[in-house]
Design brief:
Keywords: Coiled coil. The chain is mainly α and about 120 residues long. The chain has helices spanning about 20-75, 85-115. The chain folds into two domains: about 20-75; about 75-115. Helices cover about 75% and strands about 0% of the residues. The chain is elongated.
């Protein structure tokens, strides 16, 4: 096995008391400033996320309002479970008519493709 001296990995840092009180205070100030900086950064990021969440909630509410307005205006946009017998029959007839129209259009397109070849 070859030992690679350039890769040292994680080294244990020996904990020892800082002798000079001024050095200790400076070290504490650096650590505290770094921590405060991280906290400010996290708070700013959190504020951005909260703003994005509020915008998305607003969009969702707007979509719900539009969907509900559509249901009130056009009965066929309501869930099938909420439709009455008459509305279900109308919907069935409309879907059958749609199927016939789609079939006719498919036949016309097929005829056009075959005549073009």
């Amino acid at each position: 096995m070859v030992k690679n001296d350039s890769v040292q990995g994680r080294r244990k840092i020996e904990m020892k008391k800082i002798a000079k009180k001024n050095n200790l205070q400076a070290r504490c100030n650096v650590v505290e400033a770094h921590r405060d900086s991280n906290i400010r950064e996290l708070n700013a990021h959190l504020a951005q996320l909260v703003d994005i969440l509020e915008v998305e909630k607003s969009k969702g509410q707007t979509l719900d309002d539009v969907r509900e307005a559509g249901r009130r205006q056009w009965w066929w946009q309501a869930p099938i479970s909420e439709l009455g017998l008459n509305e279900l029959q109308q919907l069935r007839n409309a879907l059958q008519e749609l199927r016939r129209n789609v079939g006719k259009q498919a036949d016309l397109l097929q005829a056009a493709v075959e005549s073009g070849n």
